[in-house]
């Protein structure tokens, strides 16, 4: 097996075991591993990622850790141009998969805008990934049978997540997703932050459906598939320690981690990041559900939220995303 797999947020709790799984089981791939800070000296998580790569010295020439700031669209566009140039020059195989894993949430501070003028969770979780994928999705850059993997969550299902305070329903004016309120009271920040996260992931899921419709009709790219996977509620994820109230971090330490085996009996989606990473790796390499499209919970094909299945809203999300991401598809049918 060959081809290039691009993984964003490659030093995350889920991505590190995903990388380990691919290197151990499918070493023929080239891996482009993107992180905000590629220095193992100043970023402890990148240091962990580098330690995994060092365990597989035989593939050193097929792996690279590269800086990519998803909160900067200019950086995303430049990154894709660079990759396309490497592929055109023959120094990098065509893209076999893009795994849109990086994420942002903030449950302790008020929402803020990026330098591109978009709410941060929306840009990092959705818009920047859309720009990355769309600019790489050409017949000369993407491999036949390639796959795009988006990371979903049960937060897009009303009432499915205990952190939900406001239901995940798109506003009538989609531009409201990109705006931030002038003030958010401290007592509302956890609920507001989680709502922003859920809405960004709802946009991800809806965009995936719209993308698949276009891929299926494109004679040059109809073998490429997009999937969105809810990888589960990861009891050991660093996400619960980052930009979260202290109570949530304490609950992870005292309850979620030690009681995870028991909790999993009642809810099988409560699992480890390593298990989730393995599932995402299998989807990305096409060993799980080859040729399939759509939404998965763990590795089981499932139904996404009712809101996400509204085709007219999917198309609205598509059109708005193109504008936010500053992407103008060359194929008129993709607009």
From TrEMBL:
SUPFAM superfamilies: NAD(P)-binding Rossmann-fold domains (SSF51735). This is Short-chain dehydrogenase. It comes from the Eukaryota. InterPro entries: Ergosterol_Biosynth_ERG27 (IPR051593), NAD(P)-bd_dom_sf (IPR036291). The lineage of its organism: Eukaryota, Fungi, Dikarya, Ascomycota, Pezizomycotina. One of its GO terms (cellular component) is mitochondrial outer membrane. One of its GO terms (molecular function) is 3-beta-hydroxysteroid 3-dehydrogenase (NADP+) activity. It comes from Corynascus novoguineensis.
